[in-house]
Amino acid sequence: MKEISIQDLSEMGRVQRLNLINSCTGYKSANLIATQSLDGINNVAIFSSVTHLGSDPALIGLIVRPTTVPRDTYKNIKETGYFTVNHVTENMIADAHHTSANYESNISEFDKTNLQEEYKENIKIPFTKGSPVQLYCKYVSEYYIKENDTIHVIASIEKLYYNEELANEDGWLQIDKGNVVALNGLDAYCLPKLIDRFQYARKDKPTESFPK
Amino acid sequence: MKEISIQDLSEMGRVQRLNLINSCTGYKSANLIATQSLDGINNVAIFSSVTHLGSDPALIGLIVRPTTVPRDTYKNIKETGYFTVNHVTENMIADAHHTSANYESNISEFDKTNLQEEYKENIKIPFTKGSPVQLYCKYVSEYYIKENDTIHVIASIEKLYYNEELANEDGWLQIDKGNVVALNGLDAYCLPKLIDRFQYARKDKPTESFPK
């Protein structure tokens, strides 16, 4: 095993460290966050920091760095209070990645990619067409993380849309059925396939699979 | 598409909601967090909430709920200041899942599974043998998330170990080469494979793959 100390990290080049540290915590979710500015310009941006926070109430978290791209997302969330989270599928990866390019605020990434807006009844903010899981989220609060000048945004899930082919009768969404991808680091897109699903773990009992 | 409102969620059974909301944000990292109590008892527990926070300084975050399992992990981190993060591989999934069983604090999950401790020079806390990426982390601070009574623990990466077969010359670790798994929801383990890695996105230029 190669060993890297905190001293080695501090002496490493910026890009090398960025690649290493972004890939060392494991797979990350790949989501397109869509927002709308107050003057009606849509924005869509790839995020790998959307995480589950709790199910009752249904809350998610995401990390934003206000001083760097994609800053429009955070600005729009703060101004309108809402955003959508859309799963990235295998056939969207090149377009999803392109949303990380540094476009001006008056340009919609929907106009610069093959990603298409999808609108739902009574919701102004667009979703991404073809995403098999889509969340309509409301800004709840934020925590400033002083250690590295980032913001942990907390949001509630107000509405949830999913392709019924993914749904299990106990509520679980089997997302590999929708060809949903995961991120390995900043820029590598991976396609996961289910190995096994296990029942609730009980002490001194062997791990058991769910009946297929 | 099936539509679920916040009202539907509040009326849903607890397990149904737990399964749905845990699987609706996308894939999650699968990590074994190992800790040691002040009286020397090891603990290892599966976590899906370890996330990248920043690369300079190298920081990670994880979400803990102090009132539920795995509470020993949080207690040990607070008492000793350190923990290790170990990637879960395909052949470890049944044992990794079993660490979520509710064992008493005086029992080490290493004794109840085939997971094996691995010790490194000058580090008291164990790692998990066979994990192709292992992080030695130091508690830095925490943020109490009042919206759902959870704690966002912030930690620095003090040392990083990886299997050199995963490493790319620009620092990126290609973790599918180590058969690292991802989680879909609470209990479903998935094996991702790389589709493509893309170069830095530039406006009005097509997405380009990294040279293979």
TrEMBL record, chains A, B:
Lineage: superkingdom: Bacteria
Record bears the keyword Iron-sulfur: no
Protein species of origin: Flavobacterium hiemivividum
Recorded coiled-coil stretches: none
Name of the protein described by the UniProt record: Flavin oxidoreductase
Keywords: Flavoprotein, FMN
Taxonomic placement: Bacteria, Pseudomonadati, Bacteroidota, Flavobacteriia, Flavobacteriales
Segments forming domain Flavin reductase like: 32-167
Cofactors, names only: FMN
UniProt keyword annotation of Flavoprotein present: yes
Gene3D superfamilies for this protein: Electron Transport, Fmn-binding Protein, Chain A
Family of this protein: Belongs to the flavoredoxin family.
MF terms (GO), sorted A to Z: FMN binding; oxidoreductase activity, acting on the CH-NH group of donors, NAD or NADP as acceptor
